[in-house]
Amino acid sequence: MIDALPDMKGQSRRHVLRAASLLSAGAALPFYNEFAMAQDAAERPRGMRGAMPPDAVRIGSNENPLGPCADACEAIMKIAKYGGRYSPFNEQGDFIKAVSDVEGVKPEFIAAYAGSSDPLHRSVLAFTSPTKGFVMSDPGYESGAGSAKFVGVKVTRVPLQKGTYAHDVKAMVAADPNAGVYYICNPNNPTGTITKREDIEWLLANKNKDSIVLLDEAYIHFSDEMPGSDLVAKEKDVVVLRTFSKAFGMAGIRAGMAMGRPDLLAKLRPYGAGMLPITGLVAGTASYKSKGLVAERKAINAKVRGDVLEFLEKKNIKYIPSVSNKFMMETGKPGGELTRALAAEKVFIGRTWPVWPTMVRVSIGTQAEMDKFKIALSKVMA
After folding, report:
1. 109 shares its domain with 242
2. How many other CB atoms sit within 10 Å of the CB of residue 13?
3. Residue 341: its H or E element
4. pLDDT tens digits, one per residue of 105-138
5. Does 268 map to a domain?
6. Is position 330 within any domain?
7. Residues 234, 351: one domain?
8. In a domain, 243, yes or no
C-alpha cells in the first residue's frame, strides 16, 4: 500500500489519480510486465484460464527454460530458512556490490528491484507528464507505453528502421522533441534486433535536456553488443534497466535493477517500497558471481536459435534475424490464426503487434521444445 504520493507539482488531477491507481494495482494490470501480457495473449487463443497442459511447449513469454543456475539454487536453499527476516545478512548490499564489481558502476548508481518492470513503470511516472511524452519504437515492448497511457501521458510510436530493424533515434526525437522519456529496448522486444551504440550516443547528445533515455537491457546478455553501464558511469542522462528473468533464468524468482545517476534514481524511489525477496537477492548475487555463466547460456541460446531459423529458411518462411532469445516470423495471415492452430498442438507461442498483424513472436526454448515447435509448425502450415 502506498502511504503518500510523491510530489507531482504541475500535474493534472487526473494524472495524479491515475498514477495512484497504477501504484496500487501494480502487477495486476494487464500491461505491467511480460508475464501479464503473455498470459493475456495466451488465454485468448485457448479461450480458457488456468494451467497449460503438463506436456505443453511454452515458448511465448521469453522465459529461459534452463532456469536459475546451480549456484543460484544453492543460495536460495541456504537463505530460505531465514525467510522470517526482511534482510538477515545484508543481502541487498551484497547484491549491489556484486553488480558494481562486474559493471564498473559505483554502488550508489545501482538500485535493486524485483525485476525490471517495477523501475520501468517508476521511470514513466517520474520523468513523463501530460506535457512530456513517452517515445518508443513500433513494434516495441509496450509495458511502459501502457503505464504512460494509463496516467494520461502522450505515447509516440516510431517505426523501426527498414532493413536493420533498429530504433530510428533521429525520427524519435523529431516525433516528439519535448518528450520526457525516450525508450530503447536493446536488443529490441519483440524483434531481437540491435540498436548500435553510436545511435544511442546520438540520442543522448541530441534529446532535450529535461528528458532521459530509458535503456532496457533485459536481453543484452544474449547479444555481442556493448552494454550501457559505462554510460551510467559517465553520468549521462540515462537509466539502464536489467532483469534476471532472461539469461539468468529467474523469471519466477524476481530480481532486477536500475542503474543511473543518484539524482535520477532518487526520482524513482517515491513510487513504491521496492522491497526485494531475499531469495531473489541471493540468487542474483550468486548468478553474477558465477564465472562463465553468461557466455555458456549465450552459446546455448545461439545454437538453438540458429537451428530453428535454419529450419524457417528451408521452409521459405520469412523472419527477422535476431540476436536474442526470441524472433518474429511471418505467417501470411492474421497471426492469431497460427497461434490458435499451434495451441491446438499444445505449442504456445507469443503474440502479435498491431503494426505487424501477420507476424508472431516465438521465444527460444530448449532444443527438444523447438523440435516440437518445428513439427507442429510444419503440420499447421501444410
Report:
1. yes
2. 8
3. helix 335-344
4. 999 999 999 999 999 999 999 999 999 999 999 9
5. yes
6. yes
7. no
8. yes
